[in-house]
């Protein structure tokens, strides 16, 4: 990997990590973002236990996709690095991965419930419920726990790359959300959306419980909202500007 490209990837990963506390997605250091360079066979990730306020480009750790060994960096990588590595290896279209312990998404994960599609805000990003994994077994926890965490996500998605593209996130049972995207920035933005729609879903389900049940939206409405942002016929936004609704 050329030094310029590595520096660019470090800068992107640092910026995404610094947005975690700004977006209210983390308590203390409970969150991390990585970005991958597939040509070089490495990914860059936040170091373990370093506060966001103190984080610098030089602190970020470069890890080999092939075997998880540290290629560059003076600190230990995030303990979730092996989960990131598993997802990168399983889904070639992924360019960035984010993990947080944001409260509303974690609530669904702890309840072992997928985040349901209750409206168009959810459907704009996730073409279906955000799924929840099976519990890890005792054997999966005893050895290679973090890599096996990635494996249960892959299993929940049936190893389907298209599904991973259309539903760019999953909840690990009793743990929390992992999201991904084309790069580190996109992965972080999907984490922000995941938390937002989880909070909306909790409020909607609470209202539905009081008022007799939350109805399922029409599928054609959800499809329209997903396809206007994603796929060959997408028409949302402008390439050179950040667009609103």
Automatic annotation (TrEMBL):
What Gene Ontology terms describe what this protein does at the molecular function level?
L-ribulose-phosphate 4-epimerase activity
Name-wise, this protein is L-ribulose-5-phosphate 4-epimerase
Q: Which family does it belong to?
A: Belongs to the aldolase class II family. AraD/FucA subfamily.
Task: Supply the alphabetized keyword list.
Answer: Isomerase, Metal-binding, Zinc
Pfam families the UniProt entry points to = Aldolase_II (PF00596)
Task: Give the catalysed reaction(s), semicolon-separated.
Answer: L-ribulose 5-phosphate = D-xylulose 5-phosphate
The family database entries (PANTHER family) matched by this protein are listed as: FUCULOSE PHOSPHATE ALDOLASE, L-RIBULOSE-5-PHOSPHATE 4-EPIMERASE SGBE
- Where's the Class II aldolase/adducin N-terminal domain? 11-202
From the broadest rank down, the organism's phylogenetic lineage runs: Bacteria, Bacillati, Actinomycetota, Actinomycetes, Kitasatosporales
**Known InterPro entries for this protein?**
Aldolase_class_II_sugar_metab, Aldolase_II/adducin_N, Aldolase_II/adducin_N_sf
What is the required cofactor set for this protein?
Zn(2+)
Say which domain of life the source belongs to.
Answer: Bacteria
> E.C. number, please?
5.1.3.4
């Amino acid at each position: 990997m050329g030094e310029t490209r590595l520096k660019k990837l470090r800068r992107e990963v640092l910026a995404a990590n610094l947005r975690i506390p700004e977006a209210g997605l983390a308590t203390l250091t409970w969150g991390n973002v990585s970005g991958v360079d597939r040509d070089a066979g490495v990914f860059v990730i936040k170091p373990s236990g370093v506060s966001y306020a103190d984080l610098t480009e030089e602190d970020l750790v470069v890890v080999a996709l092939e075997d998880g060994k540290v290629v560059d960096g003076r600190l230990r990588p995030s303990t979730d690095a092996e989960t990131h590595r598993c997802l990168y290896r399983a889904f070639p279209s992924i360019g960035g991965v984010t993990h947080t312990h944001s409260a509303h998404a974690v609530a669904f994960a702890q309840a072992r419930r997928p985040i349901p599609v209750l409206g168009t805000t959810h459907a704009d990003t996730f073409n279906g419920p955000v799924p929840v994994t099976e519990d890890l077994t005792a054997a999966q926890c005893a050895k290679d726990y973090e890599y096996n965490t990635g494996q249960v996500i892959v299993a929940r998605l049936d190893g389907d790359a298209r599904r991973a593209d259309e539903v760019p996130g999953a909840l690990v049972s009793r743990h929390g959300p992992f999201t991904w995207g084309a790069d580190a920035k996109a992965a972080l933005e999907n984490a922000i959306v995941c938390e937002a729609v989880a909070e909306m879903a909790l409020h909607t389900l609470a209202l539905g419980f009081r008022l007799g049940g939350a109805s399922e939206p029409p599928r054609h409405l959800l499809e329209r909202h997903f396809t206007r942002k994603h796929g060959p016929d997408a028409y949302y936004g402008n390439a050179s500007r950040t667009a609103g609704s």
